[in-house]
Amino acid sequence: VGTMDKWEPEVPPPLEADAAIRASKTYHSEGMKMQQDCTSPPVVQNAVLLGPLLTSYKNGSSVEYSCQSYHFLDGPSTVYCKQGNWTEQP
């Protein structure tokens, strides 16, 4: 006949309050950022948009402009969607 031993799991030490707060801040500040899309890029006088015109663009996407005949580009030819806003336009 065998014997029965009583087994009790080891309880981990309690988490310090500072460590819990730091972990919480890290989780929320890095893991919960909302990505905002952009609406259609603005119309630029005497320029054409290369590629299809969409109603919504994902954060981080880009579009490129080109000039109509006899016009010159003043500013960047590519603009980027950054958190719901377009970067500097030509």
TrEMBL record:
Disulphide bond pairs: 38-81
Domain Sushi: 36-90
One Pfam family linked to the record: Sushi
Stored InterPro entries: ComplSys_Reg/VirEntry_Med, Sushi/SCR/CCP_sf, Sushi_SCR_CCP_dom
Keywords, comma-separated and alphabetical: Disulfide bond, Signal, Sushi
CDD domains assigned: CCP
Transmembrane segment boundaries: none
Entry keyword Transmembrane helix: no
Keyword Flavoprotein tagged: no
Gene Ontology BP terms: blood coagulation
Protein's name in the database: F13B factor
Organism annotation: Todus mexicanus
Gene encoding the protein: F13b
